[in-house]
Structure formats: C-alpha cells, structure tokens
Amino acid sequence: MVVWSPFRFNSGQQMANRFAMAPLTTDSSHDDGTATEHELEFVRRRAASGFGAAVSSAAYVEQHGRSWQGIGAAHDGHLSSLHRLAAAMRAAGGLAILQIYDGGRIAKPELIGEQGLRAPSAVASLRPGAKTPRAMTANEIASLIASFREAACLARKAGFDGVEIHGANHYAIHQFFSPRANHRVDHWGGTLSKRLNFPLAVAQAVRDALGPRLIAGFRVTPFESELGGYTLEDAKLLCNELARLNLDYISVSLDDYRRSRPVGETRVYDGPVEQRHAPTENPVTAFARVIAGRSAVMASGGIKTCMDAEGAIKMGADLVAVGRAVVVDPEWLCKVRSKREASILAGLPKDEREIARALSIPPRMVEYLLSRPGWIPRL
Prior knowledge:
TIM Barrel
C-alpha cells in the first residue's frame, strides 16, 4: 500500500511512511511559552507509534500574536524547550517539524500585552465577541516577517528537521491573503497580487533561514466559506507561487478531506460550516494538479482508517496528517499498521479525569477539547 511506502522531500529528507501526526493545539504550555512535561508526554506517546513525521502544535513567533497558551519560538529563551520538544517528537525516529504562527487579529488579548491586537487592517474577526484590531504599520509588517525568519533559525538550532508555516485557519498570514480581513492599499494589499506578497515573503524568509537541506512546509485553508472571502481559484494561485519557492510540501487544512469544508472563522464545531461559495472541485485534487509535483501535497481531516488515508492519496495527496484520531487513541498508527483497526478507540472517555490519565492528554488540553462540543467524539 502506498501509505506505508517512504517519501523523499525536495530537501532530501525522507519520511519512512506517508503518515504525519497533525499539529494539535494543547493550550498547555508554561506562561513563558516553554513546553510542560504534560505536553512533551502527549507528543512522545503518540510519536512513538511510528509516524513518518510529527508536526508540532503551533509556536508563536511574537508575543503580540499569541492566540493560546502554547509554545513559543520567539527568542533564545525558547531554545531549550524547543530542543526537548524535537526529541519527544522523534520518539520512534520520525521527522520533527515545528509549526510556527502569528495570531494577528485573533490573538488572545490577555496574552499579548499592552500593544493590543494588530492585523493587516482594522477589521474585526467574525468570531463572537471579537475586538477590532489596529492596522499594522509597514515597519511592523517587516518586523513580523523577520520574526518568522528568526523562528525558523531557532528551529534549526533546536534540531528540528523542518518548519511548517501556519498560513491557514484565519491566523495572521491567512488574514493578509483574505479580502475580508485585508483592506490595505499599499504593497501588502489592495489587489489579489498584493495580498499574495505577505504569505510569499514569509515563505521565502523561512526557506532562506532553513537552507536547502531542511523541510519547509506551508499550511493553507483552500477557500473562505464566509461571504466575501477568497476562493479556491485564489488559493490555487497562492499554491502555484509557493511551489515556485521550492517548498517541500503544502498542507491542505480541511475538516474532512473528502468534502470541501474548511473550518469557518466563527469556529463553531457543533453545526454546519457556512458554504456560500463552496467549490465543486475537491481542494486536494485541485492543489495537486496546480502544484504538479513541485512540492508534496499533505491532506488532513477525517482520516480515521488506513482506507481513509489511501483515499486521500488517490485524490492527489502525497502525505496524510492525522489529528483527531490520535488525540482519541495515542496508539492509533500501531493499530492501523497491525490491522487491528477494530480495536481503535472511538471517542474520549466519559470521565474527564480518565481522559487525562488514560490518554496522556494535558489537563488544560482536556478543558480545551471539551469546550468545543462535537469536534472530538465522546464514548
């Protein structure tokens, strides 16, 4: 089966199989952005099942863009923590990839300090209770690009095999590409070609910082389901330009790779996502055709079995990222490999205390998961 075959990236790095552990928000780091032992154990146990690669939870590159109590890759004080995280992610010898992000207008006010929310434009998110950010200056934009570059340098020093840029799910890079969030009329916005400038500048900065032998990936939401957002055709243009930068892979952020349903900006998990302009073409297939082998395509969302993973490969993906299934069952990949899928856990235990104990999930992450009804099944 293709999913068990190795895959070699443009950089020369090789995955032993096509399965990647998806980036999973723990919301469980120390206040200073260093990883807790609970987080490291969460990652270590799941990575030990033999993923070809593991992608970390997103690390903030600037304190002002911190969207949850997660890990940081913002300064040298985070280096030791990142080194420990990379070691935990390599529990079974797979590749360790650090995801990096900035929250922009959806940063958490209580975490970002006195500077306040900043974003491409002074336009509030659609999330309930969202505050209106201030528009970033040109100097702040240049500084944020430099922060992504420095985060990539920290990842290299910490021993990671690569970096994934979080350009999806309505965080800052997504905001710069979105016509709903970006109303600028300078180099960074105003037309589609100018809205491409920030994502491409970040990708180039990270690629340069890593050098040619480490993995550079980019996670993208394929279209905005809300009215006035960017379309799949827009995202295809972005992916085409990203592939020109010799990125190793482009990860397609979907709730279910079979259905063209990205997570909406309101982050409502217990109801349908609005799709006023849902494309008829599957994004995984569309991106694979546009990228045309210049970068790998990683699919995610709704992968619960080996058959699901093979289905994503048939639709054009080279790699598959598994998230919710490994939250629920840390030994998911071992069971899939040994053809014991009938024994895979179907949901989280009913007892909240048992969730943390039996599944090695940090207590704060348990609260985070249970605050989103319908996203993770319960037994």
